[in-house]
Structures are given as structure tokens and as C-alpha cells.
Amino acid sequence: MSKQNQASAAAELPVARAPRRERGRQRVESLLDAAAALFAENGFEATTMTAIAQRAGASIGSLYQFFPTRQLLADALRSRFEQHVGEALTRLAEDCRCRTPEGLAAGLVELMKGLREERTAALALVDPNDPRDAHRLQIRNLMRTRIAALIRQAVPETDADTAAQRAVLTLHLLKLVHQLPHEEAPAVLEDALRDWLARAFVQPPQTGRLRD
Amino acid sequence: MSKQNQASAAAELPVARAPRRERGRQRVESLLDAAAALFAENGFEATTMTAIAQRAGASIGSLYQFFPTRQLLADALRSRFEQHVGEALTRLAEDCRCRTPEGLAAGLVELMKGLREERTAALALVDPNDPRDAHRLQIRNLMRTRIAALIRQAVPETDADTAAQRAVLTLHLLKLVHQLPHEEAPAVLEDALRDWLARAFVQPPQTGRLRD
Amino acid sequence: MSKQNQASAAAELPVARAPRRERGRQRVESLLDAAAALFAENGFEATTMTAIAQRAGASIGSLYQFFPTRQLLADALRSRFEQHVGEALTRLAEDCRCRTPEGLAAGLVELMKGLREERTAALALVDPNDPRDAHRLQIRNLMRTRIAALIRQAVPETDADTAAQRAVLTLHLLKLVHQLPHEEAPAVLEDALRDWLARAFVQPPQTGRLRD
Amino acid sequence: MSKQNQASAAAELPVARAPRRERGRQRVESLLDAAAALFAENGFEATTMTAIAQRAGASIGSLYQFFPTRQLLADALRSRFEQHVGEALTRLAEDCRCRTPEGLAAGLVELMKGLREERTAALALVDPNDPRDAHRLQIRNLMRTRIAALIRQAVPETDADTAAQRAVLTLHLLKLVHQLPHEEAPAVLEDALRDWLARAFVQPPQTGRLRD
DNA sequence: TATGAATGAGAATTCATTCAT
DNA sequence: GATGAATGAATTCTCATTCAT
Description:
homotetramer, mainly alpha, Arc Repressor Mutant, subunit A, Tetracycline Repressor, domain 2, 2 domains, 9 helices, elongated, disordered N terminus, disordered C terminus, DNA-binding
């Protein structure tokens, strides 16, 4: 009863505490890694805090020191994912290979492959009841915008609108990266994908505009 | 149709008991409906047996009468889904509208929309660690085969191989049914989808073969 | 996340479930007894659910079957206390000894002694931050009203207002029942208390009106 | 509470460490203040060491520097309360207003009001299982003795025994200070209380001796 | 068969206390 | 001394499953 009073007075929602020491920073990092791996493997509901702590080589108390709630851990993971996406795109933009459609296609496929586990984890954290999930939309916009910029870098004569449309298609195609490996002959398919992409940068799709 | 391989070793594997009377059949049906709804809403792990029984207006004991295990309930649900898919396809095949590509396209989109919730529930039951999940593959094959047949019915000059390929693409396109509604202007997009489908039945995609 | 959605949709506040079978009724009774004893001994915060279940000879699951929350258990306890108070007062009113001031005094002292543990437990459940606690006021009013009636029964010439005032004083004096035993010579003091009470029914206190 | 008993056997009982410097003294003071406030608000069990440190603007490590145990902190708080009571009484004794019964009554009421929070905190630290708690008795005796002296100072013709008796009654009346404010018209009641007190110093209660 | 109750392992979370820097 | 991190036993609460009537 008294706890609730405190809460009503200050509405002390739990927040992930930021580490202040180097040791803490490392701990948080490894906890996030462990969580990402387990969420990706088993989904959000099936992943226990105990398992996360164990996998990270931390005590359960240590985990709760930084993430007072499983949901908060999930949120942190999604933020980190967004940050990683941004960083990877920045790195890609600085890579000179990206000046050609083929190079850009290869770079994007590589980027997606590198984000595979983290993306799976992040998807496991989406509330399936809420398709307009704010964070999800945010990452989508981030990618669309940045990819459009990359396309204009690789194919300078593209105007802004066209680039935006092609970015949407590109993103859809890129999602296939995560479905192909389940199939036979992934290498061949990956080649095909790179090919489609490279073409998509310069030539509009014939079937009309695809959104989402 | 489905054979349970596991049955070989164990002495007394629990099996979903079949109801003896009409009343029992109805109860089982409503239990499955409740389970489908809840699995679709909250996922497998987050759905409790108590909640299922409650939603079905049954007691927990009654639920366990028919489904001695949560997993067994999930299995029954997947089987029922497969059965429903089969029935829906049969019904579609008998619908004379399907003699034209446009009619078939419309029919398939309708079919997918009708299976929406059940499909979501079934997907929630897939072990994400096992992408080769037997049951999943079985349903996929069922759909591919049946859709190929429908295509040949609507476009009689198609040969078997071509029909098979187009069925694969068709299936991919059909999955979009479940993504579009989240977007703006669903009606417009649904039209577009029907259009793409109708074309896919007669004309191969230019960008190469898509698998899975 | 899905759980919260459910909650937001139906605001499913947990409620103490009422037993539907005889066995359950007994269980609930013994759980409440155990809880009363432990709350009285150790206070609300220091009493664990495990300890309550153990003392009642029930499993922890059984406890939670009926009281999904410790707070709910506390609430049920307070309700039961109020009910017991009411019943005890009714019984006292029907006791013919109460037709005289002395008899009434003795009866009230007896009544208080019988409620001792339960009262201690109930007091341990009051949120000390909230002096206007609704339940507490309710019991106080119940007692004031009923005692006033008893006084008019014992001393018929008393008018309603006077009886009400004397009931307030009576209640204050009665609280001493629970402090005296800690002192030396409880029997002597109990006699004195009975004496004061009997006098309080007929004669106003000289020092002015005491409220609360 | 049983755990704390075990400690009696151990070799090195932790003791509250005394601060060496002025800065330390201030820190200890603010820690005690924070603890008093929180114990008073939420009770002993519900108050966490972390919360205390936070409220005092200190780190948890710092808190443990001075109070190696929560119990030790509680003990220190009770000692400080006793000390404050003594100081307040000394100050009161030196106040010339106390030469008259009315002045003394006012002074005592004032004194009680000033100790309100600290008293609430101290009460929250009493083990409810042990009504003969040593510390509690000690404070009670301190107050009885000092108040008796004050009474003889205000009403010089009182003999020692009578003064002692009246001190007991005075103390009981003074406890009302902490109950009255919850009622309607606190100012009026406070006046009445002062009045009763002033009379109690010179005139014996008619109803007999009240103890405790 | 139907139904409510019983069970207990397991999960999330808390918190006093200890450590290392 | 001061500070943040580490620890893990203890606590609340959940839920699949089994029992008894």
C-alpha cells in the first residue's frame, strides 16, 4: 500500500539505469548481446531473465541492476538495433564501392546479413497486436531515407521522388535476404537478389508501386 | 493425413481424445476457436490454458478432457487449419467464377482473407528454431499443388511445370494480403494485388524465378 | 506486452475468487485465520504469502487460487472483521444481561476481548498514510451506532443525541481493553474499566466532550 | 527479526561508525533524517536502504559506511529520538512560560507537535511482538520523570508522588495530540486539550488512576 | 463427463549486504 | 572515504497439469 502511494506521488516508472563505470558498460553490452541471441532463438515470451543473465555470465541481480524489467531490456535492445542500423548505413555510405549500382547492391546485401540476428531479435519484440508500432515505423523510415540517399549517390541522375520509391522496393527485396537461406542453393539466390537490386536502382518496377 | 512419427517409442503418449457425442463436438470446436483467437492475439507462450477455457465458456477440467496437453491443443489447431485450407480450396475449385484468371484472383484473395485469424494462430505455433517444420511444409505443398491445379483450370493451356512455378509466385503474392491492411488505402492495394495475381497466372515474372 | 493490452481492454483488476465448493469454503476460512494470526503478529509487510499458506496447511497455489494478491487477502480480512464485529454486536444486543449498565459494560468488555486478535490484524492493514481510510471509518461508525442503541436499551431514558455522545466515549474507553493487559494487575484494571463504562452510560464526563 | 537474533552470538557485532569530520556529521544527520521520514511514511519493512540513501542524496555505499546494518540505522534513529526528547524537555524547562499550568500545557503540546514525525518513525521501529521493548520503556520513563519535575515547577505545592501520578495522566493526554489533527476542527480540540492538561496539573482525575 | 480445487516447479523481481576501484 | 557494481537468497505471483467429487 505504501509503495503505491509513492508511485502515485512520483509516478516512478522504472527506467533502464545507465552504467557509470567502464565495468558496467561492458556488462550492459554483454547482457544485450545475450538477450538478442535468446530473443532471436526463442522469442520474447519464451526467454527468461535467468537465461539471459546466465548466457551473459552475469548474476540475475546484475541484470536487474541495469534493466529493472524485461520490457525495458527489450526496449534497450530495439534502440541499440536502430543505432546499429544507422551506423551500418553510415559506414556503407562512406564505402567507395557504393558509387555503382552493383557495389551498392552487394553492400546492402552484406549489411542485411550482418544485421541478421539482431533483426530477428528485434522482430521478436514487436507486439503483434500493434502493427503501427512506433519503433518499427521509425526504423523503416530511417532505412528508406538512407537508402534513397545511397541510390542517388550511386545513380546521380535519379530525382528525389524516384529515389524514394525505389528505396521502398529495395527494402522489400532486401527482406528476402532473410528468407533465402532456408532454401536450397542460397549462393545462387543471393546472386539473383543482388542482380534484381542493381536493376531496381535504375529501372522502375513494371507492376506498379509497392508500398510497405 | 498427418502421421505422428513420435509415437514409436513412448508407451502412452497423450492424444487429443475425440468427442463421442454431438455436444462434445461442439465443445471441441469452441475450444479450438477460443485457442485460435488467443494464440493469434498473444502468441503461444503468452496464452494460458485457463484463458482458453474461459473464453470458450468451458471449465479448465473440460478443456483437459479433450486436450491433455497444451501442445496437443496446438497440434489439433494446426491440423484443423490444414483441413480448413483444404476445404476452402475445394470449395473454390467448385466455384465457377474460377474459370477466369480474374475470378480466380478474386477468389484466392477472398480465401486468404477468410483464413486470416487461423493463419496467424497457426504461425504462432511454429517453432521458430525449426524453419523446416514438417507441418508447415505440408501446408505449403498442399497450397502449391492445389493452386497449380486451379491455375490450369483457369488458364487451360498452361503446362504442369509452368503452373507449378506460377503457383509458387502466387503464394508469395497472396501473403501480401496479410500485410496490406496495415497500410493506407487497403482497398486500392487489394485491387492492385488482384491485378498482379491475374497477370501472374498467364505471364511469367520478368525478374526470374522466386522460390519460397 | 500482450498482457498489458488485455488489461487495458478489460481493466481486469484481480478480485478474490469466491469458493464454490464446500472444500473451498473451508480452505478460505483457514487461510483467513492464518493470515489474521500472522498479520497480527508481524504486521502486513513482514508477513509472507508462503508463511500464510504454510500456517494454513495449504499450498501456495491454493492460497493464490482464492487471493490473487496479498492486498486482496488483506481486504478480505478487513471485510470479515467488519462482519464479525457486526455479528458480535447483534449477539450482544440479544443478550438479556445487557438490559443493565453493568451487564452491558461487562458484555462490551467481553466482546472486545473476543475480537482482540482480529482487531490487531485489521489495524496492521491500515495504510498509516491515509488516516481517513474508508474501511476504518466504516467500522467506527458501525460501532458507534450500535453502541448508542445498546446504551438506550440499557438506559431507556437516554435521548438519541446523548446516547451518540456516550457511545463515542465508550468506544474510547473500550480501546483500553487492548492496552491494559500489558500492564500489571490486569484483573483489577479490567474491573475499573467496567466501572467507568457503566458510569459513562448514565453520567456525562465532566471534562467536556471527547471526540474520536 | 529472527535473523537479527542470531547476530548476538557472533564475534564482531557491527556498530554504527561515528563520523570523524564535520562533513561526516552532516551526512549522518541527513541520512537519519531521510530514514526517519521514510520509516514514518512507509514503516520499517517497506523502507529500503537504497531509498534512504537516495532521499539523503548519498550513495548506498556511503550509507553503509556509517550504518552497516538496517537495524543499526533503526537503533541510531531511536537513540537520536530519545536525545531529541531529552533536549526538548530541557529547553522547555528553561522556558519561563512554564511557571504556570497554562504555559506548561501549551509548551508540552508544542513539544509533542514538534516531535511528531520522529515519534511516528520511532514507533514504526518497535517490534510489535515485544510490548516491553526496553528502549520504549526508557523513553516513557524519561518523559514521566521530566514531566513530573515540570509539574512541580509549575505547581510548586505538589508533592513528588502526586506529581508522578499526574505525569502519567499528562502523558496519556498528550498522545491525543497525534490523533486530534485527523478530526474536524483541530484548533478547537487543541484548545480543549490544553485546558484538560492545565487542569490535570492541579486537580486529580475523579475516575481513578490511569496507568499506561 | 463435468467442474472446481490442489499442487509445486519455475519465472520475475526485490533488496540487504558485500566488493572493487 | 566515497561510489557504483555484484551477488543471491527470498518473495510474489503464474500456470500447466493432476485430483477428487
